[in-house]
């Protein structure tokens, strides 16, 4: 299947991206084939659409009000996952689940805590589980115990690896993953910079894009692929790049603020672009940029991912160059639809994708109207 091939390629590129850092950022680590396959993946009809259609037929057959849903979120304090879980809860209720039968728990970014929560859900006999794992590498253990308890499982946001997804298919288990292809969001970040033109971006005139990278959780494939593909978009277009600093900000605004403040202190006016793996960190970067007396859009450029309201307001004001909409509506709805499909026996494909949207000043208001 094409999607499996894409997943395999992503798994292979992940190996290359694991050792991410300034050292390998100037080299292209993937093949043209991989890039083509990824492009195809973004235009391919998504499993989400199929799932939604199937759900429309199936919902009427299910007595959803009696069904118990357990939802594990890796960390409640994560801005994006807060939007996701709020929409997930609302959408589940709109489908007919009773609010009192939906339990959403906070893993507090600790896998042991989350594993205990999963055990509790199994003991309580929930009808379906939706899990945003703390560590994707724990997926096999999680899957084994949930499948042994005969509970259908929908993973969200943090994609388990290829070998894990292959097990679901080989064994015909009721397990799926719902999420977007993170390489697409990275490519869009690179394009946001490329659309400005090298002459505009290359403030110090050394013929290169001198950048800082601020990464999310290093175990997370979204962080790995955004880091890789944002820069790859530039190098694929023949632009030279120079990585000044590449550090882990764990998706957090405060950590990004101090990383970028230090990097600006060290590299000064040579910093031309700040890539952040998400908007929370871009907002922290913006605080550091402003404190250093720099001006986004004039002497430095800044991009994030997620399309948080505050980031969109900054894009509109010109204080962020752009962001990428991480569609929590589509992802949460697809996750809930997939849960319903398991409950009604309709079943699901083992991968349900969605598309990111590039956000500039031109469409930021439209996205803001949608997310507010
Ligand atoms: C990403 C999102 C980040 C963070 C992360 C958590 O998709 O862009 O902001 O929420 O998921 O896994």
Short description:
The protein has 372 residues and is α/β, with parallel strands linked by helices. The chain is 50% helix and 15% strand. It binds beta-D-galactopyranose.
Q: Provide the low-confidence segments as ranges.
A: 1-20, 24-48
In total, how many beta strands? Answer: 12
How much of the sequence lies in strands comes to 5-15%
Largest sheet: 6 strands, parallel
Spatial strand sequence of the major β-sheet: 2-1-3-4-5-11
What is the H/E order? HHHEHEHEHEHEHHEHEHEHEHEHEEH
Q: What is the average per-residue confidence, as pLDDT, rounded to a whole number?
A: 88
What structural class do the secondary elements suggest? Answer: alpha/beta
Backbone shape: elongated
Proportion of residues in helical segments: 40-55%
Please explain how this structure is put together:
This protein has 372 residues and is of the alpha/beta class. 50% of the residues lie in helices and 15% in strands. It has helices at residues 2-18, 32-43, 47-59, 79-95, 111-124, 139-148, 162-171, 182-194, 198-201, 221-236, 253-267, 279-291, 309-317, 328-343, 364-371, and strands spanning 69-73, 102-106, 128-131, 153-156, 175-178, 208-215, 240-248, 273-276, 301-303, 323-325, 351-352, 357-359. Strands 2-1-3-4-5-11 form a six-stranded parallel beta sheet, sandwiched between helices. Helix 1 crosses helix 10 (221-236), helix 8 packs parallel to helix 10 and helix 13 (309-317) packs antiparallel against helix 15 (364-371). The protein starts with a helix and ends with a helix. Residues 1-20 and 24-48 have low confidence and may be disordered. The structure holds beta-D-galactopyranose. The site of beta-D-galactopyranose has 14 residues, from helix 4.
């Amino acid at each position: 299947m094409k999607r499996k091939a894409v997943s395999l390629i992503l798994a292979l590129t992940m190996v290359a991206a694991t050792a991410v850092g300034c050292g390998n950022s100037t080299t292209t680590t993937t093949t043209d084939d991989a890039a083509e396959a990824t492009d195809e993946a973004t235009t391919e009809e998504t499993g989400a659409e199929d799932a939604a259609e199937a759900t429309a037929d199936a919902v009427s057959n299910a007595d959803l009000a009696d069904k118990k849903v357990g939802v594990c979120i890796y960390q409640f304090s994560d801005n994006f996952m807060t939007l996701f879980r709020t929409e997930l809860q609302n959408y589940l209720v709109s489908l007919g689940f009773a609010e009192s039968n939906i339990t959403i728990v906070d893993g507090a970014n600790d896998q042991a805590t989350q594993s205990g929560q999963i055990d509790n859900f199994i003991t309580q006999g929930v009808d379906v589980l939706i899990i945003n794992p703390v560590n994707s590498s724990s997926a096999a253990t999680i899957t084994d115990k949930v499948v042994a308890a005969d509970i259908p499982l929908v993973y969200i946001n943090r994609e388990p690896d290829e070998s894990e997804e292959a097990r679901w298919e080989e064994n015909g288990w009721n397990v799926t993953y719902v999420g977007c292809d993170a390489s697409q969001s990275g490519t869009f970040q690179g394009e946001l910079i490329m659309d400005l033109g090298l002459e505009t971006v290359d403030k110090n005139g050394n013929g290169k894009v001198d950048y800082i990278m601020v990464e999310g959780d290093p175990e997370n494939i979204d962080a790995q692929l955004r880091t890789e593909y944002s820069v790859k978009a530039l190098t694929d277009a023949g632009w030279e790049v120079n990585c000044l600093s590449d550090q882990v900000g764990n998706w957090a605004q405060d950590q990004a603020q101090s990383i970028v403040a230090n990097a600006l202190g060290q590299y000064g006016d040579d910093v031309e672009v700040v890539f952040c793996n998400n908007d929370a960190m871009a907002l922290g970067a913006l605080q550091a940029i402003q404190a250093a007396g720099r001006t986004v859009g004039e002497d430095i450029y800044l991009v994030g991912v997620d399309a948080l309201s505050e980031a969109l307001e900054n894009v509109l004001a010109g204080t962020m160059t752009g962001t990428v909409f991480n569609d929590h509506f589509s992802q949460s709805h697809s996750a809930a639809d997939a849960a319903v499909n398991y409950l009604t026996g309709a079943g699901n494909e083992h991968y349900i994708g969605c598309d990111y949207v590039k956000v500039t000043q031109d469409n930021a208001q439209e996205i803001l109207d949608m997310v507010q």
